[in-house]
User: What shape does this take?
Amino acid sequence: PDRAMLVLCVLFAAGAAAAPLLGGEASMEFVNYVTLARLQGASGALKVDENGWPVEDASVIIDGRPVDAWHLPLDDPEARQADWSGTWTFSFLGKADVAAGPGTTFTVTDVQYDKATNTQSGKLVFPRGKYPTVANLIILALTNTQRTPTAPTPSGFVNMTLVHPANQGQPLHGVTDRWKRVMKPLDHMRWMGAMGTNSYSWQCGGSQCIDGDCYACSVLEWSDRALPTHATRTNSALCKGCLGLAWEDVISAHNDIKKDIWINVPVTASSPYVKGSNTPSDRTKTYVYQLALLLKNTLDPSLKIYIEHSNEVWNFGFPQYALNEAAAIAEVNKTHGTSALTDSSVDWWNCTYSEDLRQKQCWGERRHMRRVYEIAMTFEEVFGAGSLGQRLFPVYASWANAFESAYERRREGHADYAFDTYFNGTLLWLQAQLHSSGKQPSDFIKVVSLAQYFGPDDKTFVPEKMTVEQIVQAYYDGATANTNLTKDLVALRKTFGIDMTAGYEGGPGYSVGKFQPGTKNLSNIIAASRDPKMEQAILHDVKDVYFGNGGDIYHYFSMVGKVSHYGCWGALEEFDDVDNPSPKYKALLQLAAMKNRFEP
Assistant: This one.
């Protein structure tokens, strides 16, 4: 899911570690809240400079209210929100009239301007209270702005900071101490959501496409990426790759807390193997090469790197599925059906060429597999021979279902559509492509991965007619139902000699989008997600089902996130909940303390 903020990972890497490791994927809580704020003009698109700072009057907006607070009834019956009470501090270079915007419950005080340094500062004071009496909404309106003493009015401002009461005195350029506390028990973090992985999309179409290839003109170059010098990480209009955090943000956080890193390479990233209409001729200037170089030069050399190609490239609902498939179709058409993507010598799935493009899904899945291989090759080129499997761990992630064992079905003479096509078939295809080189997929693919969510059986699940205890039990039973799926992935890993398995996302998950706010269905699911017995359901899924059947890496989705009709993913609902951990987070703390119980 794209809305989730953090992902917990549990790693049991036989041969790579003596005991399981715990890690997590995080969106940041920066000390400077402006970094994740939205800057908005009085009307229309805000005019900004090259770093995204406004050159006109603007408002700074941060919304920490319950999800979809503007739509009643609220998703969350308890209307929970973080504690924002106390005194916030702000400052910026320039001068302006500063006021609280409509619908806010804070007051602006102690506004001062220092002419010598051209710095304006002040305070926001939030009262203590529950929503809606107190709304966690900041709309800070800056009008009559004057960037420098000689600039016209309005001319905007730069270098604004805004600090929460709990984070006062902490270094302004970095993550908060409580973010570090949330992550401290963990060993690695996945950054899919925070980096905007699911947001890369078409940059052209129609006549702009190059020889019918609408992927080539959407390719992302290194110069298109988000930068740490940008005002915020929320202005997608600033650059093609301004869809989330800057890589430097992520690297700095890992260096700070000494945790391994799991990255998601954008689906449209240029590389020595993927060229777009503006890709430099020098292969070392491509996105993937430069990303590898940045990690080599700036990430603590003791930290491992897990490398995934985008996120859920198999998923029809994400733009990366269509972008990857478009690139595969363009390749097949340009080669008049002779591309390796149409090779039928190893064919669980009929991938042969046809002008009606019937097999385009197969070509796309094979291209996804090849991109993992190519990215692995590029990273090894940068980091040096022998780095794969030692510091670098390329991940092939795809899809399968847990309804019954793929291997049992095969013994009965039936192919498991999902498992055979998305995993076994693509690995056999890559094996065939590598045959002449004497290499195997396991020389490049170090982790095979699928989602490890557990939840109720959709056929029998009617939460409005169930008690909270019965709903939690349905989650527990859903974890048990994942047993065959875990066994299948472990068997596949062993068959191909791949180092590790992973659940790239996991934890209690259910498609709650069909349940409307204010209904007993949604309210009961939210209550179940907060129930003390959910702790045991999570322990059962991770410890008994996944690790108990030989799984290696377990990602919990997610560490911090509000409950809503989009899902109840968060182990914690707010960062300040670390002082009052939920049953979900307690389960993760227990797992962190159980390392020696997972010995092989």
Summary: Residues 360-383 form the longest helix (24 residues).
